[in-house]
Amino acid sequence: MFKDVIFESASRSKSRVVIALDFTSKVKTRLSSSMRTLQEVSDYVAAVKLNYHLILPYGLKGISGLVEFCNKKGLPVIADLKLNDIHSTNKEVYRLLRYFGFGGVIVNPIVGYKEGMDALLRKDRGGFGVIFLVMTSNKGSDEFYGMDLDSRKLYHIFAEKAKAWKADGVIVSAKNTEAIRETRRIVGKDCIIFTPGVGAQGGEAEAAVSAGADFIIAGRAIIKSDNKINEIKKLNSVFQRF
């Protein structure tokens, strides 16, 4: 199971930090910058999240060396695609991500289960993680994720589906501790809560962990730091208080 994979990595590195390699530098330097950063911090993080920042300009084949490096280090690599498509497309994305060594994918579950998410939420996915986007960390997130629907909010429904469909994890903004607490209440202990938005977007790590987050996703706070390892250690120190 993905939960076993990522917690084994977390135990090995003594870390609950997922680094997001969201470099916005010149395209021709992003991959090399990402590789240097990984070589520096790989022993201090639990997993790696790759976004369109690298996947679009380089493609899966172009970043295969970076993914292979992570695999050799035992670091799960999560594709942050917000995937939301029909069965045939989701099935192909799943096949390609597995082929190129990824360990999980972030999806937007609004497409529904039948002929949609069912292509990913297969029983035989063998440790590959499917992580639901429940609440984003941008200022406008409440317009839809916080929308009231029959006395519930949309993010409540996504959390309920994560539990019912046996997703491996959920994404909930660090800037919304109420959403983290509510999501934890809904999904229980078996579903991992990843929380982005710490640092550059204004979220507070301690508040997020106190509310129930299992892992902190951090990008700019780390990659723009002059002392990346120290920044990771500061984030990890929060977990020692709970």
Task: Explain what this protein looks like in three dimensions.
Helices cover 44% and strands 17% of the residues. The protein has one domain (2-237): Aldolase class I (TIM Barrel), CATH 3.20.20. Helix 6 packs parallel to helix 7 (177-187). Strand 1, helix 2 and strand 2 form a beta-alpha-beta unit. The protein is an alpha/beta fold and 242 residues long.
Number of strands: 10
Spatially, the strands of the biggest sheet line up as 1-2-3-4-5-8-9-10
The span between the termini is 25 Å
Shape: globular
* CATH architecture assignment name: Alpha-Beta Barrel
What is shown here, in short?
By secondary structure, the protein is an alpha/beta fold. It is built from ten helices and ten strands. It has helices spanning 2-13, 27-41, 52-62, 64-73, 87-99, 154-164, 177-187, 205-211, 220-223, 228-239, and strands at residues 17-20, 47-50, 77-83, 104-107, 129-135, 148-149, 152-153, 169-172, 192-195, 215-218.
What is the strand and helix layout of this fold?
Layout lengths: L1 H12 L3 E4 L6 H15 L5 E4 L1 H11 L1 H10 L3 E7 L3 H13 L4 E4 L21 E7 L12 E2 L2 E2 H11 L4 E4 L4 H11 L4 E4 L9 H7 L3 E4 L1 H4 L4 H12 L3
Parallel strand pairs: 1-2, 1-10, 2-3, 3-4, 4-5, 5-8, 8-9, 9-10
Antiparallel strand pairs: 6-7
